[in-house]
Amino acid sequence: MLKTITLVGLGGAIGSILRYLASTLISNKFLTTFPFGTMIVNITGCFLIGLVYALAEGNKITPEWRFFLATGICGGYTTFSTFSLETFSLLREGQVLYASAYIGSSVVLGVLATFLPIYLIEKI
Predict the structure, then answer these.
(1) Is the pTM of this model over 0.90?
(2) Of 66, 74, 79, 96, which one has the greatest count of Cβ atoms within 10 A?
(3) 94 phi-psi bin (left φ>0, alpha ψ -120 to 50, beta other)
């Protein structure tokens, strides 16, 4: 268990640094208010977690590498990749209603959860 936690933590640190570097580099390249940096990080994170998932499913990598790469690096890089993989898994299992509910509620409740404390603090 301690080994897994260490791998996830190390991967998370690496992923967070990569997210910062990639997002900053991309944002500096596209001088616009559109969040290209975040969008590209999310899309590349989805690709990477899909790659790790495929390798793990084909027994091409060990569980330790899966934790380091998927939970650690991809999780630190973007949690959107986990959201995407979980949605894919629901759709693959034929759970279209659950997948739709997960997508809709995650986006709507996520935006509301971000808005609420900002709104409340601005009113204080």
Answers:
(1) no
(2) 74
(3) left
Residue 48 structural domain = 2-79
Of residues 79 and 99, more confidence is placed in: 99
Structural domain contains residue 60? yes
Domain count, the chain: 1
Residue 115 lies in a domain: no
Closest CA to 69 of 98, 49, 97, 44: 49
pLDDT at 114: 86
Which pLDDT tens digit goes with each residue over 41-88?
Answer: 999 999 999 999 999 999 999 999 999 999 999 999 998 988 999 999
For residue 98, being part of any structural domain is answered with: no
CB count, 10 Å around CB of 75?
A: 20
Question: Does any domain span residue 88?
Answer: no
